[in-house]
Design goal:
369 residues, alpha+beta, Ribosomal Protein S5, domain 2, Alpha-Beta Plaits, 10 helices, 41% helix
Length: 369
């Protein structure tokens, strides 16, 4: 039996910066997906996806099945590997993904990454040194291509990069322009509490597309004004303020969020390196305010969770995490206080909102194996 595991990930800072060719800080979490199985002597692939169903198909004719859309992420990875010339044949595998739904933990990327590692082991594929960051980022690029080309989702390298590059007590600094990753050591006494507000996700594709279009509009207007930028990553927030007259108020707000968020990521990286946890927490709170006021991808429930967290002496920093429009919050606390903090956060939120929240304690963990 061949087995591979890949963790989920969570965004520490870097909200919507990926498609603006900016920066982010994230870490692999201590939850993930497992793929177990064996190769076959024929060309049939059979996937048993726990909680979803079974899907079989010939490896030489990988196609979408409208009745099994949950298999598309796996098919996308396999399709990319076949196109790259990997000598695959049939196999049978069980995919287990116990990560909570709607928690912004990058569960799909964890499945994709685990599947790539499983196939490498099952078929003895020659990759070179799997501990080489270049090799690992190649896996992330393959997973991204599967999402983009087969599944048809305009995802970035964000999720799979953190899943492969994660390291215990480290955060991953990502540059989305050159798709590079750097490990930054995090204080080992820190951990994080993820809290879901108990509200159904409103992460509508139309809202996400609107934000993306508004960012692109900001770039277009800057270029029309002879300010040469390829993406919002190329301009500072003070320059956006100076040229505020170029934009409609909504577009100005989006540009301000992205540019200040990129600046927060760079400042946060410096804060982590000098072990200034208080400064890191302050940047998290500032990110939340920017998401609420400028990017408008927070919700009253997320705002309430952050406000409750901020009032707790044990909380160092808190913000929404992921795409927003629902999802979860992330609170940074010291490990010894995590259980008590999570209990108090959920208790107060339950009393004030009438909703039933869910919390998970996560920590920076190792990447795929």
């Amino acid at each position: 039996m061949v087995s591979a595991y890949a963790p989920g990930r969570i965004e520490l800072l870097g909200n919507h910066t990926d498609y603006n060719e900016g920066y982010a800080l994230a870490f692999a979490v201590n939850m993930g997906a497992t793929v177990q199985g064996e190769p076959r002597d024929n060309s049939t692939v059979t996937l048993h996806i726990e909680g979803s169903g079974d899907e079989s198909f010939p490896i030489e004719a990988i196609k979408k099945n409208p009745s099994a859309p949950w298999a598309d992420t796996c098919k996308g990875v396999i399709d990319q590997m076949v196109k790259a010339g990997a000598p695959l044949r049939g196999f049978e595998a069980t995919v287990s993904n116990p990560m909570p739904e709607d928690a912004a933990l990058g569960s799909s990327a964890a499945v994709e990454t685990a599947l790539v590692f499983f196939l490498q082991k099952a078929f003895g594929l020659e990759w070179g040194d799997i501990n080489d960051p270049t090799v690992r980022m190649g896996v992330a690029a393959l997973c991204k291509a599967g999402e983009n080309e087969f599944v048809g989702v305009k995802s970035s390298i964000f999720d799979p990069a953190v899943s492969v590059m994660g390291k215990k007590d480290h955060v991953v600094f990502l540059d989305f322009r050159d798709e590079s990753a750097e490990l930054v050591p995090l204080h080992p006494d820190l951990c994080f509490v993820v809290c879901h507000p108990g509200v159904k996700s409103m992460m509508l594709s139309s809202k996400f597309s609107a934000r993306r279009s508004e960012c692109a509009e900001a770039v277009k207007l800057l270029n029309m004004a002879k300010i040469d930028v390829k993406a919002l990553r190329d301009i500072k927030s003070e320059d956006v303020r100076t040229n505020a007259g170029l934009f409609l108020p909504r577009v100005f707000q989006r540009a301000m969020h992205i540019t200040t968020e990129n600046e927060r990521v760079l400042h946060a990286k410096e804060s982590i390196l000098r072990n200034d946890i208080e400064a890191l927490g302050k940047l998290m709170y500032e990110s939340q305010e920017s998401s609420r006021e400028a990017f408008e991808n927070s919700t009253p429930f997320l705002d309430q969770l952050v406000a409750i967290a901020k009032d707790q002496p044990s909380c160092v920093g808190a913000r929404l995490t992921g795409g927003g429009f629902a999802g979860c919050t992330l609170s940074m606390v010291y490990r010894a206080e995590a259980d008590a903090f999570a209990a108090e956060l959920t208790r107060q939120y339950r009393e004030k909102s009438g909703k039933e929240p869910k919390s998970w304690i996560v920590e920076a963990s190792d990447g795929a194996v």
